[in-house]
């Protein structure tokens, strides 16, 4: 019996010693991991931008408001300055805030901010090494080819030959007919504006438009809206930061399904387009792209391929339609909330051009107040608060700080459009921001809704034409008002790929 108790006692002592050793080993490994985490990822140079203290392994992820991420950035900028650094896991993130910082970084050092980071989430939307499109492509030869092609063909099929102006003017007539058919009754303008702008993007790229009742364009608009919402859900932001997460089941996988549905429609249209193509005469950007593909045959390194043409058609349709239609919606909302501004715009248009003469870009200098209102709509709408990020390939000096190599850089456009040092009434709708003492239009240096630098929005000129002609034609033909027995629309902001107003009803009363 004594022998048995001795054996049991010995075994107990050994087990306790074993677990004590395991515990000690685990504590040692944890301390070593914390030390390595600090030495390799957390230790700061004196010239790095200031920022919140990161936690081991997590960085600042637990300190950010995932439900309202855009609320976190102004709070951090107020505390740490207009150029601050945070960490997502072990990845350095820098946020550019305010006009002065953004001008120095993206204006004076634009070549240091042209590369895009690798975003694993994008592979769900068909982005690969040989298919990067235009917006999210890195600063590769492919991006330069695609950018050069886009800008050149915008001159050929859009800006250079007044084609775009005529295209938008005709579409504005179709839009007015749709509004007139409402008979002055309450309606939601969202899909009408999206269809009008979507038709411009289809006409530019594919040479044709759709009727407003056409099932194909309505399907494209709904699918695109669905895709944008899925992209911006919180779980998809985690996918963007961690590639392995894209293999875990979840709502983010819907991106692949929706994107495939969208490209299937565009592929069907593209195949029909090929059947009627005349190699001797390019009707639109798609014909021009197909010609480049013919030239690139036998050149495997060329970025001109069928996957990229579908990607670029998708990007132009999705981003071009979402942003411009959202801005028009904000414009209509501001007009019903500020009827005195709407009346003054109508009076200026009528005095200079009457109620029937179509307006073109050459008429813009004659409409200083209308021009000021359009700029203020864009400033207040602030539809892309945070632009697509960059990544640094070497240390970049900005002011007294150094942005380190391999750092993801976010461009807070909202902080420029609402910069309290640059605007008299940054949080109010105030067209006088763009008028001098004599009522003439004045440019403002901090008006940067399209960003600046080589990565500024490539569709800026398209958007300017669309906004001017659509907006002035609508106010020339209609007076917009809040329907009787309807509440005053709220100016709350809905965040998706871009910022839209809450759905609202208006009446369009023919003039």
From TrEMBL:
Residue numbers binding heme: 457
A GO MF label: heme binding
Record-linked InterPro entries: Cyt_P450 (IPR001128), Cyt_P450_CS (IPR017972), Cyt_P450_E_grp-I (IPR002401), Cyt_P450_E_grp-I_CYP2D-like (IPR008069), Cyt_P450_sf (IPR036396), Cytochrome_P450_fam2 (IPR050182)
Record-linked SUPFAM superfamilies: Cytochrome P450 (SSF48264)
Co-factor requirement: heme
PROSITE patterns to which the protein is assigned, alphabetical: CYTOCHROME_P450
Keyword list, A-Z: Heme, Iron, Membrane, Metal-binding, Monooxygenase, Oxidoreductase, Transmembrane, Transmembrane helix
Annotated GO biological process: arachidonate metabolic process; xenobiotic metabolic process
Chain ranges passing through the membrane: 18-39
Xref: Pfam families: p450
Family per similarity comment: Belongs to the cytochrome P450 family.
Name the record gives this protein: Cytochrome P450 2D14-like
Species of the source: Eublepharis macularius (Leopard gecko)
Lineage, opening ranks: Eukaryota, Metazoa, Chordata, Craniata, Vertebrata
Gene this chain is encoded by: LOC129335541
